């Protein structure tokens, strides 16, 4: 049986008691209504017939007192739990290098080291009494300085004597390096610059022929250059003013696949000079260009 209503120790609500509010009054009435309805409809909570469970509870296993430890399965391809799923990626597999790859890397390192030591080896001055190197081959990698052009065999000149049309005309430097002019005969031109040749012609005309002659000399056609070696079409080609080495290679059809494009040998005045291939490398008329072959 439900217990009887216990009189409350609180003072009943009355207009003379200001402490009792309307909210407390509603709470008290709700409690009395619940107790009255519960005694009539609420079944007893004791006894097997009025048990809250219609079926007995399932028996627990003997080792139910010890719970098994929590095991978390970690997929190696997904990473640890709690991490960002976008970053869970399997690590790439790196195969160890083969024996041939290791040998190739060692050979490449040795070649690079040998090339570096060859480039940085200091050149010592020869001792007194030691044999001097051959002067016909000059090894250098600097661009030759641009000097005044020197005339040579094969150059075609235009000589103008102002006021004297009979003494003016076009003349060619012969094999001996001389130019045959009217009235004065041969005048040496080989190895001279244009200004030097003008002075020589002026001196010859002033020696009993003209009084204070004015002479001007121009180069119409330069003597050709020669190119041999690892080019597609070696041979003799006409020289043009302000010509560079790469222009000469282009005229000869370009390099072959065996050509060494880092250096070139040029013969000038019975001396073979070695130059580094640069866009600033200029040529001179009569140069003999030899493009070497690379070894590897």
């Amino acid at each position: 049986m439900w217990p009887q209503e216990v009189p409350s120790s609180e003072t009943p609500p009355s207009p003379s008691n200001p402490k009792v509010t309307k909210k407390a009054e509603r709470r008290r009435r709700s409690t009395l209504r619940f107790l009255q309805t519960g005694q009539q409809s609420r079944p007893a909570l004791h006894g097997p017939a009025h048990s809250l469970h219609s079926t007995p509870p399932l028996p627990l296993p003997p080792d139910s007192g010890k719970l098994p430890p929590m095991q978390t399965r970690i997929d190696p391809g997904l990473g640890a739990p709690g991490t960002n799923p976008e970053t869970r990626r399997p690590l790439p597999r790196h195969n160890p290098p083969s024996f041939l790859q290791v040998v190739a890397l060692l050979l490449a390192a040795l070649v690079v080291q040998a090339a570096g030591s060859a480039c940085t080896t200091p050149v010592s001055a020869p001792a007194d009494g030691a044999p001097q190197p051959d002067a016909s081959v000059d090894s250098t990698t600097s661009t030759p300085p641009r000097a005044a052009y020197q005339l040579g065999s094969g150059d075609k000149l235009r000589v103008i004597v102002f006021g004297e049309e009979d003494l003016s005309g076009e003349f060619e430097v012969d094999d001996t390096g001389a130019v045959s002019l009217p009235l004065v005969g041969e005048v040496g031109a080989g190895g001279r610059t244009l200004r030097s040749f003008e002075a020589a012609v002026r001196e010859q005309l002033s020696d009993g022929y003209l009084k204070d002659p004015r002479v001007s000399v121009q180069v119409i056609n330069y003597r050709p250059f020669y190119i041999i070696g690892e080019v597609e079409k070696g041979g003799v080609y006409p020289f043009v003013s302000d010509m560079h080495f790469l222009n000469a290679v282009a005229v000869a059809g370009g390099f072959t696949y065996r050509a060494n494009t880092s250096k070139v040998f040029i013969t000038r005045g019975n001396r073979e000079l070695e130059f580094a291939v640069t866009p600033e490398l200029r040529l001179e008329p009569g140069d003999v260009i030899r493009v070497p072959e690379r070894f590897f």
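Residues 78 and 85 are 7 Å apart (CA to CA). Helices lie at 22-41, 99-119, 194-206, 245-251.
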